[in-house]
Design brief:
The protein is α+β, with helices and mostly antiparallel strands. The protein has 4 helices and 4 strands. The chain has a single domain, classed as Alpha-Beta Plaits, CATH 3.30.70.20. A hairpin with a 4-residue loop joins strand 2 and strand 3. The radius of gyration is 12 Å and the shape is globular. The chain binds iron/sulfur cluster and FE3-S4 cluster (F3S). Iron/sulfur cluster binds next to loops.
């Protein structure tokens, strides 16, 4: 399955949901998570993400492996999202800021 990682936090562009044929994205306040049981590994979403936050599970960068479990858990408790939304006003300012996990709202 594919995994949403740190750089999505507070960017939340949502372009990813527009291309997902499996409706595998779930929405929190400032982050999206992919449900690994829904994801069919089509590989369409990583290139759509302006924040380059999505990786195949085997390619999640060192230091971000915890997002594999986090996507699985959060996607179980958050509602599904299937439509693109306006990103936060300050999304661009947060794009590329490291270790945003401390800002993750669960
Ligand atoms: Fe959806 Fe494909 Fe991305 Fe999986 S890899 S989350 S199926 S767009
Ligand atoms: Fe997040 Fe990128 Fe989707 S920033 S909401 S994974 S387009």
């Amino acid at each position: 399955a594919f995994v949403v990682t740190d750089n999505c936090i507070k960017c939340k562009y949502t372009d990813c949901v527009a291309v997902c044929p499996a409706d595998a994205f779930y929405e929190g306040e400032n982050f999206l998570a992919i449900n690994p049981d829904d994801c069919i590994d089509c590989d369409l979403c990583p290139v759509e993400c302006p924040a380059q936050a999505i990786y195949q599970e085997d390619e999640v960068p060192e230091g971000q492996k915890e997002f594999i479990e986090l996507n699985a858990e959060l996607s179980k408790i958050w509602p599904r999202i299937t439509e693109v939304k306006t990103p936060p006003k300050d999304a661009e300012q947060w794009d590329g800021v490291p270790n945003k996990i401390k800002h993750l709202i669960i």
